[in-house]
Every structure is written in C-alpha cells, then in structure tokens.
User: Fold these one by one.
Assistant:
Number 1:
Amino acid sequence: MTEAAPPPSRALSLLLGVCGAVAAMLAWQALVPMLRPAPSGSSMAVRLGLACAALLPACAALALMLLAQMALRFTAAAIDPLAGRETRALLRNQRVIANTLEQFAVFAPSLLALAAGTTAARMAEVTAAGAVFAGARLLFWLGYLLAPVGRAFGMAGTLVVTLGTLAAAIWVWLH
C-alpha cells in the first residue's frame, strides 16, 4: 500500500521552511564579516550593551507590527476587541504579534547570555544574529499577509537563528 502524498500546502510549507532556514544561515554568514568587533568590547558590560543594541532591529520590527495593528483597528472601527468585529487582517496581525513575542522571549535572553559569555572577537556573530532575527520576523509577517502558508519561510528563518543562538549560549556557558 502506498502512502498518499502530502497536500500541496504542506509540501509548499516544508519547501518554504527549508529555504527560509538556509536563507537565514546564509544571511548570518554574509553579515558576520561586514560587522567589525568593537575594540572596547572586552568587558562584559560593553558586550551586553552591544547585544542590547543588536536587539533593537527586532524591537523596531515589533513596533512596526503594533503600529500596523493600531491602524488596522482604527480603520476597521474595531476599537473594542471583545465586540467580535475583528477583520481577517486584524486576526492575522494579532497572531504575527503574538508569535513574534513568543520567539523574542527565547531569542532575547539567549542573545544576552551569549554576549555575556563570549569574547569581543565573536561579537559580530551576536550582532548578525540580531539582524537576521529581525529580518526573519519581517519575512514571517509578509509571508503571512500573502497567504498563511507563506509564513513558513520567515518562521523557519526565525527558528534557526533562535535555536542557534540558544545552543551557542548554552555551549559558551557550559565550556
């Protein structure tokens, strides 16, 4: 007996996810050489400050999502979120924002822990991770706006950078 092929949307989601994961790794690898380590980054305080700065693009992406949600709510006259007047766009944006916060809750402490435990020479890798995370979140949002299956590219990119940062932070602190 042969197994049925997965539905086209599942296959497309898997394909987009693999492409998103590879794209995130390539983007990180391309960014690292462009970012020079700060000469004064040898102290933990400076490295943590740089890691906080590396989180700013993700904060800006989240702020953009929140502003878009506010504008959508205003234009849809759905001021009361409990009245049941949310449009599909509002519901989709709510999910993007919630997922971004969930991802950020793992990524941000991982990035800070990595920065605290690494050397100044490796800070370009930390900074690049922050930029790739923000880019992946924006691609997740864009993909979701186009079609729910489109979110797979940005979701996989986010997952790769988040889990990679978490694993690197654990590695640095265990060794």
Note: The domain at 8-174 is CATH 1.20.120.550 (Four Helix Bundle (Hemerythrin (Met), subunit A)).
Number 2:
Amino acid sequence: MIKQFSRNTHRLILFGLIAFLAFSGCATIFSDGQDTITFNSNVDKTKVFLDGIKLGETPLTIPIERKTANRNLKFTKPGYQTQELPLSHKFNMNFAMLLDITGTVISLTPGAVDALSGNLIKYSPTEYHIEMEPEKSSDHNLFRQRVASKRFAAHNFTNIQRDLVTGEGEFLEGLKASFQIPPAHHDAFEETLKTNTDMLITTNNGLDLWNHLNHLVKDDPKLKHYSLS
C-alpha cells in the first residue's frame, strides 16, 4: 500500500510539473500571439516563406503572428535543394515543442527534447537555423553527418560547456563521436579542446561553438581529414 501510494504521489508530482511547463512553456510561432523570430542559414540570402508568403532572406529577424493552425515553412536558394516543411500544431512545453515537423527539420534547443527532424535547427526559443544542401551535393553522407553534429552541439550546448570546464564527460565524448574521430586521434582532439577551452566556453550557442570547433579541427594537421565543412 505504501509503495502504491508512493508511485501515485510521484505520478501526481510529474503530472503537475508537466502541466506547469505546458502552460508556462517557451513562446513559439505556433501558439496565439506574436514573436520576433530570427532565421539564419549556412548560406546567406536564403529566401524564407511562411504559408506561401515571402518573409525575407537570411539572416532575417522579423515579427510573426503565432497561430494554432497548421503552417508551412519553405526555404529556397538557387543552386540548393528547396526545403519545404509542413508544421502541425501539437502542444506547448519546454521539453516538447508545439511542432511535429516532418521533412527536413532539426530542433537544437539547449536542454530540450523537441519533436523535430531534418535540417532546421532551433537553438533558442525564437532562433532557427536552416542547413541548405547543394543541388549537386558531392557527399550527401557528409552533409547528413554535419547536420547531426550541429544538432548534437546545439541541443547539448550547456552540457558541453560544463564538460569543457571539467575536461571530461559524456558530452565531450558525444561531440568527438559526432566528428567520427577514430581512437588513434582521440588524444589530438582532446588536446584541441583543452587548448581552446576558454574560447569555446564563451561562445554564444551550440552552433557558434560547433563552427569554432570545426575550424580548429580543419586547421589541425592530425584532424583536418575529420572536418565537416
């Protein structure tokens, strides 16, 4: 009886926490109201469309009315594959976004678990990054690896910063794995992190950290073959 009461109590506490987060969750473009949304991309001047209406070109910061209806984002640029993303309204929670995005979308909100997949990276409640793939991509697998690595860095930004400070941890191991660094070069990668810790922990977000780290990997004679750019 005591065990059953304890389980029920834990469930009630968990339900209360979920309800609280649901009603106090981060603002997005998919609930009523208005937000100022920023769109960036790996290539500037990518055109951004919402529900068929052109919002502008990246880098773009614009106020957008939030709606509870299904919406559609589209990103276009000559020479790159068009990214068209159907968005369906779900629910508003800090750890599970309003979005259920199919197609080419990625969620990278630090500390969140969002129902997104693909090339759109969300790295703060109102900031999005779209990763555009060339129409004639020479290495689609490399492109997918780069997107996945960026996703990991943005999604786990604060945890990576913490591990950088301590000099070890599962999130540094995950970052290493996302670059597919082989065991023979683990020491070189770890030394690069150690030498550049002060710079990496002061980056603004996971994408900023990833870009700096990728440049460091590219400039290192032992690691340059594992650069993802």
Note: Residues 140-226 form one domain.
